[in-house]
Amino acid sequence: QDCIKQVDALRRRFVASPLQVEDETIPLTFSAGVSIYGDEGEDFDALVKVADQRLYQAKAQGRNCVIG
Question: Binning pLDDT at 50, 70 and 90, where does residue 37 land?
Fold first, then answer.
C-alpha cells in the first residue's frame, strides 16, 4: 500500500536525523501501525484500534518498523 510506503519513508528520514544534544548524539527510532479506511474500518475508533494493534506488533518485532 502506498500509505505504508509513505509512513516508512518518514520513518527512514526520522532515523537518519539523530538528535544532537551538546556533545551527545542520540539515535532515534520510529515504529508505526497503519490502518486503511474502508478495508479495516469506517470510523475513527475502528481504525485507531487496528493501527494500535499493529503498533504493538511493530514493537514486538524489534521496533523501528511500520506494520500495515
Answer: very high
Q: How far apart are the first and last CA of the chain?
A: 8
For residues 35 and 50, is the Cβ–Cβ distance under 8 A? yes
Helix (H, G, I), strand (E, B) or coil at 27: coil
Contact 4, 33 (CB under 8 A): no
- The DSSP 8-state label assigned to residue 31 in this structure reads -
Q: Cell numbers 486503511 label which residue?
A: 36
pTM beyond 0.85: the answer is: no
The C-alpha cell of 3 is what?
500509505
